[in-house]
Amino acid sequence: MQFSPGCLVLVFSLFHSAPRAPATVVEDFNHVERCKDSLYMGTPPRGIIDAKLKKICQRYADKPRFVTLYDPQKRIPVYSAYSFKKTEGDRRVDYPWMYEPQLAEVDGNGNMLPFPTGYLHMKFEDSQAVLDDYSDVVLYERGHLNPDQHQSDPHDRASTYTLTNVVPEIREFNIGPWREHEERIRVRLNNYCRGTAFIVTGVTTTGHMIRRNNQDRVAIPEDVWTAYCCTDYDRNAPHDVRIRFPSQAALAKNAKEGNTVHEITVQDLENFLKTRMDVDQNLQLFYDNCISPSPLPLYLHHTI
């Protein structure tokens, strides 16, 4: 599917589009029923200008679960965006790894699928990462952008185990500072977010790649970043917690050392990303900067 040059800057149409069959790779996250539920005010980050990127409505068991902006050339997600679900935080590891058939095909029902036994790479390895890209890599692990411990429904958790939701993370970083931060955010949102929290987690890259068979295959992130928005929160929370609402961001180096996760404002994160990503000066991770209350303009009312 080809996209017009400006399709990655979200512009909501004033008119309803005609109903169509579920598709995974879409021109607009709003075109797939309920896919926009993963986004604050139904609005994805704006200002990302690379027309080669693919918008994936991550579907599992015939239901949209979260959304991903995917780079088929680097074979990693630029970001995944999801709604946080209160959970005990236990981590499951028995879900099968899946791939996204509609990055390579135009038919199908839009669901991610488990890698088949003895699968033929030629069908989809050009458009996305495959298991072999990670199998012989010692330094890196498959790091979730939408982590399963931020989901509660078994199907929502299973859906996070798609290679279109993971990036190569240095093992020490993945199991150390970054996992600790994911747990810190889980506890904070569990305890103090009264409504729905929306999270966007992504990466920056500088050209380093995992190679397989003498070919560049998967980009290695330089930085990993995340931000959440929760406008309905406990106003009686302790001050050191209350100042981290309604929104907060974090940034870290994907490295063996010097990989401390720094909590920063969303605006500071956006300013950083403007120097590290192919974005314009209108980059905005959350609609209206997650200001509470944040009324929806009249021309967007039809999207609810």
Automatic annotation (TrEMBL):
UniProt xrefs under SMART domains: Endonuclease_NS (SM00892), NUC (SM00477)
Gene3D superfamilies linked to this entry: Extracellular Endonuclease, subunit A
Pfam families named among the record's database cross-references: Endonuclease_NS (PF01223)
Signal peptide positions on this chain: 1-23
Keywords of the record: Signal
SUPFAM superfamilies found in the cross-reference section: His-Me finger endonucleases (SSF54060)
Residue ranges of domain DNA/RNA non-specific endonuclease/pyrophosphatase/phosphodiesterase in the record: 62-279
GO molecular function: hydrolase activity; metal ion binding; nucleic acid binding
Taxonomic superkingdom: Eukaryota
Domain ENPP1-3/EXOG-like endonuclease/phosphodiesterase: 63-286
Cited PANTHER family: ENDONUCLEASE DOMAIN-CONTAINING 1 PROTEIN ENDOD1, ENDONUCLEASE DOMAIN-CONTAINING 1 PROTEIN-LIKE
Protein name: Endonuclease domain-containing 1 protein-like
Organism of derivation: Oncorhynchus mykiss
